[in-house]
Design a protein that fits this description.
The chain has 220 residues and is of the alpha/beta class. It is 38% helix and 16% strand. Helix 1 crosses helix 9.
Length: 220
């Protein structure tokens, strides 16, 4: 369904890579940009003291992709990433906004280079407010911050052990939905868009869109 669509993934761990895995299933050409040493989730079993040759935790969300290692702290590597973005339809990242801004990889910079780009960002707590640049993981941002953990607690009892990555994969689906809607809009307007998804919002408000660079205002 998505043959011919070019996606650049600049992300680690679960939620954003999970979205790209779905799009790869549907035929998109996904290029995963990894840091030196690779996506840290490649070392998931080693990090918990388990010797395991295969890593289904990594494979689940990174199926069907091509991969390149770039040390984007180096100017030459950033230039290589920008050249990939120039030819891409979609850019998906979960790097914190401050780091993206310092590297010239924020949505304003990339949409200026490629006005047709769909730029999807996944954060812990959204792009606005005092927590915008705060790191966020599934257990804290999705389960705790949203209040879902309290809702699952037995009445009068202690909090239960939460299933890891449920919130991440809910966010994956929200990102894919936002990207597909933005691609449909681009067919009509020729313009790209920012898709802003976060782990900490309720599922019904999990992804929102921001208009193309000409109209930086929230869609109501």
């Amino acid at each position: 369904m998505l043959e011919g669509l070019r996606v650049v993934e600049y992300a680690t761990y679960v939620a954003a890579p999970g979205a790209c895995g779905i799009m790869a299933d549907w035929g998109a050409d996904v290029i995963k940009v990894e840091p030196l040493g690779g996506d840290p989730i490649r070392q998931f079993f080693a990090s918990v003291g388990v010797e395991e040759e295969r890593n289904p935790v990594f494979d689940l969300d990174n199926r069907g992709k091509r991969s390149i290692v770039l040390d984007t702290s180096q100017e030459s590597a950033r230039d290589a990433l920008l050249r990939l973005v120039d030819r891409a339809d979609v850019f998906i990242t979960n790097v914190r906004p401050g780091g993206l801004k310092r590297s010239g990889l924020d949505h304003e910079a990339l949409l200026k280079r490629n006005p047709r780009l769909i730029y999807a960002t996944l954060t812990g707590y959204g792009l606005e407010g005092p927590d915008a640049d705060r790191p966020g993981m599934d257990s804290a941002a999705f389960w705790a911050r949203s209040g879902l953990a309290a809702m699952f607690r037995p009445k009068g009892g202690d909090p239960i052990q939460l299933r890891t990555a449920v919130g991440d994969h809910v966010a994956s689906l929200a990102i894919v939905a936002g990207v597909l809607a933005a691609l449909r809009e681009r067919d009509a307007t020729g313009r790209g868009r920012l898709i802003d998804a976060s782990l900490s919002t309720p599922p019904s408000h999990h992804a929102r869109s921001v208009k193309s660079p000409r109209h930086w205002m929230r869609k109501r």
